[in-house]
Amino acid sequence: MKTLLEVLLNLRWPSNFSVALIILSGILWLYYVYKWRMRDTLQKLKSFNSVPTVPIIGNLHIVTGSNKERAIKLYKLLTEYETPLVFKLFYKPIFIIGRSQDIQVILNKTHQRDLMGMFEMVLGDSITCLQGEKWRKHRRIVTSAFSPTMLQQYLKIFNKYSSLLTDNLKKFADNDKAINMWSHVDHLNLLSITQNMTGHKLELGDRTNAEFIEAFNKSLGIETSRFTHPLLFLNFMYRMYLFISGKIEIFKTIRRFPRQIVKKRLAEYEINENSNQEDKQHKEIKSSKTLIDSLLKTYSVDAAFTEKHVTAEIANMMITGNESTSTTINFVLLMMAMHPNIQERVYEEIKTVLGNSDREVETE
């Protein structure tokens, strides 16, 4: 009886030409399948200014080379074409904007899937990446957490952590050396957002908080690397890279933190639901409402809205809220540091409104 090795050795393998033909046929088949599945998106992209593309690789050649070479090529595109401008890395449409109004044009003519597909690994079940009826359903729930009453409630917590940030920065007031503002801002900002969205008060020195912050900051660097390493634009290549490099653990840490908070609040919510009506009413009057309360209420009455969706929306608020707010705060502080005259005008306006009192900031 022949061994498996002998059978394989006796097989008539195709020539190099045949192998190349098979590979080329497979690539072409995948290319046309992609064009068929993306036909609606591709049709919408025709309304944008577009850089001439090379079949299959798109405009991959534009982002090759060093960071300086890439910057020169992209700057040249902005001088030759009117924005918003679209070019492609393989099959991924990439938008270049030069004016603030370009954002509205892009949002009106594309799907969230086209814009946010890169973030599905962390935010795939949240409002950031959903579309259609699912998006509208999640939006209704999330919007309820930003009513005027809720914003007034959030302001108390914002004031608390703003005071802590001010106290931290006072230590450096007489220091002429540059400091890393981000490390001071994003930690306190995470605590503020988490407490506002979940009612869960985090401790400043908690190890789990520090792990999430560290993982979050590392993930920003990893996501940014996708813009400088074109092969990572392909989701399957990106996932493979994360697994091989071990960096997938960073994203597991990011997902684990909000999941732990949701499980704790879910247990509290179920206890409240199982209590008698009188006690339940007392707790509702005594406790404030947060985004997670709205999410858990939907979870309790809608079988299609799972714990995974609750966790995704909380993670979305923690990650996107922290990134956008921390970036804004850092930018404002940097600009005031660079322009002392503007800093003085801001201070005078604060004194005009608050005088010499130590009262907290209010909406009115």
TrEMBL record:
InterPro entries from the UniProt entry: Cyt_P450 (IPR001128), Cyt_P450_E_grp-I (IPR002401), Cyt_P450_sf (IPR036396), Cytochrome_P450_Monoox (IPR050196)
Gene3D superfamilies: Cytochrome P450
Transmembrane segments annotated in the record for this chain: 15-34
Alphabetical UniProt keywords: Endoplasmic reticulum, Heme, Iron, Membrane, Metal-binding, Microsome, Monooxygenase, Oxidoreductase, Transmembrane, Transmembrane helix
Cofactor(s) needed: heme
Molecular function as annotated in GO: heme binding; iron ion binding; monooxygenase activity; oxidoreductase activity, acting on paired donors, with incorporation or reduction of molecular oxygen
Cellular location(s): Endoplasmic reticulum membrane; Microsome membrane
Main localization (coarse): endoplasmic reticulum
GO-annotated cellular components: endoplasmic reticulum membrane
Topology in membrane: Peripheral membrane protein
Family of the protein in this entry: Belongs to the cytochrome P450 family.
Protein name, per record: Cytochrome P450 3638E2
Origin organism lineage: Eukaryota, Metazoa, Ecdysozoa, Arthropoda, Hexapoda
